[in-house]
Write a structure and sequence with these properties.
The chain has 393 residues and is an alpha+beta fold. 26% of the residues lie in helices and 25% in strands. The strands form three sheets. Strands 11, 12, 13, 14, 15, 16, 17 and 18 form an eight-stranded antiparallel sheet that branches.
């Protein structure tokens, strides 16, 4: 039996209890979903491939002709911005002999050259040059159509400063799939929320953590607030568990919100708030796990996004970017506040490392078979498990 057939059969056997709506009767994903490499690849090709998954931040490919190699769950890809300003993602392999095209981030100009035989592709992936294909100095041969041998493009779109990919090419348009998220946050932050986001290019604008766990555990930990008193005592002192609420947004995200985000915490001058933020909810903060691999945070004075890059079943990189409400938020006058936010969130996310790594180690135990859910506190986590299980068709 092939790996795909094995996992499909195995998962469908457990599927009824995985998607059970009654939390008291439901069970979580099996250990293999967090530890097994064959499962990990099956998951990439049969679950994540059917939806939109985050690949990179749009700012990583800001200039025309700069090629950036990436690996998505073992799959070599690269991205580039074409002459019309559109970001594109391609399989990182030459159509000639399967050579990796892009090995490091570099300006390629208007032609992407294979380092092996120098075949050249334009920024839309079309094969434009086949040097010496017919012998020395002969660059064409009868019957060979360059138009049939371009790069294989991966469907991609940008949303909230992130480049998303859909490997199957069959998902709903990204705007349609994430419409409920957009509408929810526009009701809180204004219709122009996503249009005025600006990223902080300085040291206080980014964070990267390497954690020894499956990326799904990072999703599960982020979307619930149950662990605040025990793992985040400082955060819980000014945003206590009792002030948090569960969030489930259609079939695309789950998470938590707080009624007590403190805009004025600390001595640093405040940041500009989003100009159309609901004045009745200035202390509202919402934190959503956007399935399958993005963590989002929205407060009146800043927004952040974390891409979970899965390098192996038990290896994940958490890559964070901070965004603010317009260019005025990036001046020297607000630097101290941005640095303060960076320090505060760095502490919170660092405190989570021991938790997700501990859960990963626990998945080696035969005594654990998916676990149980609190019917009150684990609603977002259960929703994520249901979403995943429903992807095992």
């Amino acid at each position: 039996m092939s790996d795909a057939s094995f996992w499909k059969t195995n998962l469908l056997t457990h599927r009824p209890s995985l998607i059970e709506d009654d939390l008291s009767a439901a069970r979580g994903l099996p250990n293999a979903a967090y530890t097994d490499r064959d499962f990990w690849l099956f998951e990439r090709d049969h679950v994540l491939a059917q939806t939109w998954a985050a690949l990179a931040f749009a700012s990583e490919v800001s200039e025309t002709g700069v090629t950036v190699p990436l690996v998505f769950m073992g799959l070599p890809l690269f991205m580039v911005r074409d002459e019309q300003g559109r970001s594109r993602v391609f399989h990182n392999v030459c159509s000639h002999r399967g050579m990796q095209l892009v090995c490091e981030s570099t300006p390629s100009g208007l032609t992407i050259r294979c380092p092996y035989h120098r075949w050249g592709y334009d920024l839309t992936g079309r094969l434009k040059a086949t040097p010496n294909i017919g012998g020395m100095g002969v660059h064409e041969v009868a019957g060979f159509d360059c138009g049939q041998h371009g790069l294989k493009e991966v469907r991609s779109e940008e949303y909230l400063g992130i480049i998303f990919i859909n490997l199957s090419g069959e998902a709903l348009p990204l705007e349609t799939q994430f419409q409920s998220i957009t509408q929810r946050w526009q009701a809180l932050a204004g219709d122009d929320f996503s249009e005025i986001l600006v990223s902080d290019p300085g040291e206080s604008g980014a964070l990267e953590l390497a954690v020894n766990c499956n990326y799904k555990l990072a999703v599960e930990n982020y979307c619930e607030s149950y662990h605040l008193p025990s793992i985040h005592p400082d955060l819980n002192s000014y945003s206590p568990l009792a002030q948090h609420y569960n969030l489930v947004v259609d079939n695309v995200a789950s998470g938590q919100g707080t009624h007590s985000y403190d805009l004025g915490r600390g001595d640093a001058p405040p940041l500009p708030v989003f100009p159309h933020w609901d004045n009745e909810r200035l202390k509202t903060g919402e934190y959503l796990s956007l399935y399958p691999n993005v963590l989002l945070g929205l407060q009146a004075d800043h927004f952040f996004a974390i891409i979970l890059t899965s390098d192996a079943p038990d290896k994940t990189r958490e890559r964070l970017r901070f965004f603010y409400a317009g260019d005025d938020a990036l001046g020297d006058a607000t630097l101290a506040r941005r640095q303060s936010l960076h320090a505060a969130w760095s502490q919170v996310f660092s405190e989570d490392i021991s938790v997700v790594e501990g859960m990963q180690r626990g998945r080696a135990s035969h005594a654990f078979e998916g676990g149980v859910f609190s019917p009150v506190m684990d609603v977002p986590t259960h929703h994520f498990h249901q979403w995943f299980a429903r992807g095992y068709q």
